[in-house]
Design a protein that fits this description.
This protein is mainly alpha-helical and 123 residues long. Helix content is 86%, strand content 0%.
Length: 123
């Protein structure tokens, strides 16, 4: 009897973990918290559905969001050197407080982070 109780407990725990993970994934994916930060098509679909936009409004909204995306990209490119300098300054300050073993791990982490950021920016 005791063995059966443990098996039921483990199955219940496992199902809870699976259900919780699925809920977090569902929330993150469909709320827009995961994926691209600006998805023009998703925004147009949602506003069309929620506000019941007609075809001319959808066209105008699409143009407005396209202008926004271009302006945002231009602004990000314009300010990128400042953000890069701030990021480098912060990393240098962190390096000053680390011992040699920690410094090697930190430098590896920085390299991986920079590589991941380059991949995200390239498409």
């Amino acid at each position: 009897m005791t063995r059966r109780v443990y098996i039921y407990f483990l199955l219940t725990l496992l199902l809870g973990i699976i259900a919780g993970g699925a809920g977090v994934f569902y929330y993150g994916w469909y709320s827009g918290h995961w994926g691209s930060s600006f998805d023009q098509k998703r925004i147009v679909r949602r506003m069309t559905r929620d506000l019941k936009l007609d075809a001319p409004q959808v066209e105008k909204l699409t143009a407005i969001l396209a202008d926004y995306a271009k302006s945002r990209k231009d602004l990000e490119q314009k300010n990128a050197p400042e953000f890069d300098a701030l990021r480098q300054q912060t990393r240098d300050r962190v390096r000053q407080i680390l011992n040699p073993d920690q410094l090697a791990k930190f430098n590896e982490h920085v390299r991986e982070t920079d590589e991941r950021m380059r991949k995200q920016r390239s498409p």
